[in-house]
Amino acid sequence: MSNGNLRRFGEPTDVADAATANENLTEEGARDPPWDDIRHLLHLYHLHLRTTVVLAVSLGFTASPPKLPLIPRAMSVRTISKTATVGGKNIDIGVASKFDQLVVALKKALGPSSGLTSDDVDVNFLTELMREYDSVDDGWRAYAFGDASRGYTRNLVDDGNGKSNLLVLVWSPGKGSPIHDHGNAHCLMKILKGSLTETRFAFPEGSNERPMEMISEKTMTENSVAYMADELGLHRVMNKGSDFAVSLHLYTPPNVAKKGCFIFDQKTGKRSHVPGCAYFSTYGRLLKE
C-alpha cells in the first residue's frame, strides 16, 4: 500500500498535549469526573487510541491536519449513557459514543439468533437502528481507512459473535465495486459520508452470453439506508463523486467474508468466484500486507 494514498488525522504527541486539550473542555464534569465514571473514562481513553489515525474524509484539508485532544469534546463524561432509545426500544449499552452504541445495539439485536433469517430477529428494527444513527457523530471515523489506489476498502468494525459482520467501506472517488451477489446473506447499507450510486441487475438466465438486465438505479445520500439480498438480484455500488465516500454495512450471516462471492461481467453475464474477501483493517487497526 502506498502511504501517499492513505489520508489520516493527527494525534497528540505527548501527555502535555493531552492535558492542555482536556483543560479546554467546557462540559460540566469533564475536568473532574465522579469516581463512579472512572471506568467509563478509561474506556474513552481506549476508544481514542483507535481514533488517532483515521481517514480525513470530511475536512478536505490540504495542509497538516489538526491535532485531536486525548479525550475529544464529543466523548466527554456528559455523553456517557447506560441506556439508549433507538428504534423505539430501550437498550442497555453503557458505552461512550453514539456509534459504539449502534454497534452494541446491532449485536444485541442479533445475539439470540443466527442472523436476519431467524424468526426472532426484526429486520425493520435493525433497519431503524441504522436509520436513527446520525453520521454527523464521528465515531465511525476510527474505522474509516481508505486507499485511493483501490476501488474501495473493507474495514471490520465488529464480528457480531460470529453471527454477522459490521464493516465500514471507504469508496475512492470515481470508483466502485463490480456487479456481485451476497453469498446468500443479507445486507443493510447506510451512507455515512458523501453519496453512492447503487445499480441493481437481474441474475443471468441460461448459459448464453448476453448483456445483463438492469433493474434499477438510485443514488443514496448521507444517512439513507438500503436493504439488499440475493432474492432481490445483484448490484453494483459506485462513488461517482470527486471525494471519498463512506458507508456502513451489516452482513448476516458473514458468508462473503468466509466463502467469498460471485462477480459478474455486465456485457456477457458470465460469473467468476472471488474467494473470501479480505479486510483492509480490523477493529481500527490497519493490516499488514
UniProtKB/TrEMBL annotation:
Reactions the enzyme catalyzes: L-cysteine + O2 = 3-sulfino-L-alanine + H(+)
The protein's enzyme class: oxidoreductase
Domain of life of the organism encoding this protein: Eukaryota
GO molecular function terms attached to this record: cysteine dioxygenase activity; ferrous iron binding
Needed co-factor(s): Fe cation
Cross-link named 3'-(S-cysteinyl)-tyrosine (Cys-Tyr), sites: C187-Y251
Binding site for Fe cation: H180, H182, H235
CDD domains membership: cupin_CDO (cd10548)
UniProt xrefs under SUPFAM superfamilies: RmlC-like cupins
UniProt KW Cell wall biogenesis/degradation keyword: no
Similarity comment: family membership: Belongs to the cysteine dioxygenase family.
Record-given protein name: Cysteine dioxygenase
Taxonomy of the source species: Eukaryota, Fungi, Dikarya, Ascomycota, Pezizomycotina
